[in-house]
Amino acid sequence: MKNILLFLLAASISHSYAQDRKVSELAVIELPRNLSLHFLSPEPIQYVDISQKNIIGDLPLKNVLRLKLKDSVQHADAIVTITGQKYIAQYHIVSCDSGRNAVTEIDINPADMKPLDISGIGLSQPQLKNLAINLFCKKQNHSVTSAQAFGLKANLFHVYSAGDYVLLSLGYENNSNLKYDIDELRFKIEDKKITKATNVQSLEIKPEFILFDQPAFRHSYRNIVVFKKISFPGNKVLNIELSEKQISGRVITLSVSYKDILEADTINL
């Protein structure tokens, strides 16, 4: 079970939130005995506080909170605070008898949220997704750079910058008769020129967000990848490596220069 984090941050936020909203104004949610209640969040949950020990909770998924009464407990009356990347929500939880009409799934709706402006967190996952979808829908007329190998062609169609974020519009064409089963899409900052006498320095970086998690493609494949604050010296490149599952194991690497990053089109947030 995933630990629930950021206690001090959310505790202070919860205090200020309570000043604006009274307990009597909170949505009352019934927690059935012998059943679990699931809260579904539109973005990853950062913190949860349960005011009473008779109720236990955990995060089976990053955007799902599961609540349940402890064994042998017959009554509970608690305030549950849920904090996402950009919101805080509170609910009044009371125990009830289990039945056919018992509600076991609750969507955290905008009406129950209070927006948060936490310095350093940046855009939430839903915001990054909406931004990536908008860019994905744009027509790609030409590529900034490309590479070919094993009947494949890799294209960097566009580079965008939005605040602290850099977004890459990637595309792949499969001109072979074999379906391409994707193993990994990796991003490494490496030396531009490599000689036998040089120790190769490679730094793998992880995207902040990837629009699609596609397992395979037969003809073409496009994706939007989001990074936060990419910078590297001019003697290095960003290598984008797409690898295929074994046994075929075809690998194609697309090199992106820092000049291409610096020439990104700006998007106003």
From TrEMBL:
Xref: Pfam families: DUF4138 (PF13595)
InterPro entries (alphabetical): Conjug_transposon_TraN
Designated name of the protein: DUF4138 domain-containing protein
Organism, as annotated: Mucilaginibacter corticis
